[in-house]
Amino acid sequence: MKKLLTALCALSLSSVALFAGDFPDISIAELKKAIAEKKVVVIDVNGTDSYKAGHVPTAINFADVKGDLAAALPKDKDALVVAYCGSPACHAYTAAANAATKLGYTNVKHLTAGISGWLEAKEPTEK
C-alpha cells in the first residue's frame, strides 16, 4: 500500500510539472531589458488576430513560424527564448516553448504575465 501511495504521489507531481511546462518565468522588467539589449527571441502564441492587434515588441507570431521554427531562432542554442500567451491562466505558450526545447534550446522561459499583464503594466505593443 505504501508503495502504491508513493507511486501515485510521484505520478501526481509529474503531472503537475508536465502541465506547468517546467519553464522558468521571466518578469516584464527582465524581458524589457533583454529586448532593449537585443538578447532575446520572443514568441507570441496568441494567434494571428491577437498578434496583429498588438504584441510584445520584437515578438514573432508562432502561427507564422511553427512549421519552421528553427529558421526563426538563432543558431546559438543557449540564446534566450521567451514564449507567452494571453494571461497567467493560459498554457498555450507551452507549444512554442516545447518546440524550442525539442530543437535543443536550453534557455527557454515563460512570460507568465502574458499579453494581458504586459498591457496592464502599460507597456507598449507593436502591430
Can you describe this structure?
The protein has 127 residues and is α/β, with parallel strands linked by helices. The chain has one domain: 3-Layer(aba) Sandwich (Oxidized Rhodanese, domain 1). The protein has 7 helices and 4 strands; from the N terminus they run ααβαβααβαβα. The chain has helices at residues 2-20, 28-36, 48-53, 62-65, 69-72, 93-102, 114-120, and strands at 40-44, 60-61, 80-84, 107-110. Strands 2-1-3-4 form a 4-stranded parallel sheet, with helices on both faces. The longest helix has 19 residues, at 2-20.
Summarize the structure.
Helices cover 46% and strands 13% of the residues. With 127 residues, the protein is of the alpha/beta class.
CATH class: Alpha Beta
Return the CATH topology.
Oxidized Rhodanese, domain 1
Say what oligomer this is. Answer: single chain
Q: CATH superfamily, please?
A: Rhodanese-like domain
Level-2 CATH architecture: 3-Layer(aba) Sandwich
Query: Can you list the strand order of the major beta sheet?
Result: 2-1-3-4
Q: Kindly state the number of beta strands.
A: 4
Mean of residue pLDDT? 87
What structural class do the secondary elements suggest? alpha/beta
Question: What is the helical fraction, as a range of percent?
Answer: 40-55%
N-to-C span = 58 Å
Total number of distinct structural domains: 1
SSE ordering: HHEHEHHEHEH
Compute the gyration radius: what is it? 16 Å
Beta content comes to 5-15%
